[in-house]
Amino acid sequence: MSEFTDAPVASEPSLADSLRSFTSVADLVRTVMVSSTKLSREHMEQAARKYLVSYLTADIDGRAALFAEDAIFEDPVGAPPIRGLPAIVKFWEGAKDIRWWAAHDVRRVVVCGNEVMLHFVSTMRVPGLKQSSMEVFEQQVFNEAGKIAHVRVYFDENCLQ
Fold it and tell me: Is the separation of the CB atoms in 110 and 128 below 8 Å?
């Protein structure tokens, strides 16, 4: 009985009862996945891929067009965040000044809510230095206008090849 009425308390179905409606664990997991209510997966994935291609072509203007004016850029996570698009562009221009070049081999794009998690291998070149590759995990958060508002780049020494 409920403490406020004499009516019996309705019981929630047990987890075991709920599982009967699923044929696989994947079906169960799909019920808890979160999609953005404002942005499509296609929009966020396309923007994330354009962002990566812009490094190959050194297209800083195209890359900047994907970002919010008040964006935050952490590359890598743990370094002081770069705040605001003008400061982020200055960071990118520093890499362009040394003719830093990168090609990204995308391994996985995960979209959850208004965020994208990228897993890719970056092949990097700077004239006069030996080429290197690095496994990278990158989180991009999109604002309601569809612009990248926050980037967090994850890698450590074990990611270098």
Answer: no
Q: Provide the whole-model pTM.
A: 0.82
Contact partners, residue 71, CB within 8 Å, separation at least 6 = 83, 84, 85, 88, 147, 148, 149, 150, 151
Domain that holds residue 86: 34-159
The structural domain count of the chain equals: 1
Beta strand pairing call for 82-83 and 101-112: unpaired
The answer to whether residue 131 is domain-embedded is: yes
Q: Give residue-wise pLDDT tens across range 134-151.
A: 999 999 999 999 999 999
Nearest to 120 by CA among 68, 73, 53: 53
Q: Which residues contact 26 (CB under 8 A, 6 or more apart)?
A: none
Confidence of residue 78 (pLDDT cuts 50, 70, 90): very high
Are the C-beta atoms of 50 and 42 separated by less than 8 Å? no
Joined tokens for residue 33: 């996945």
Q: What is the arithmetic mean of pLDDT over 39-61?
A: 95
Residue 13 is assigned to a structural domain of this protein: no
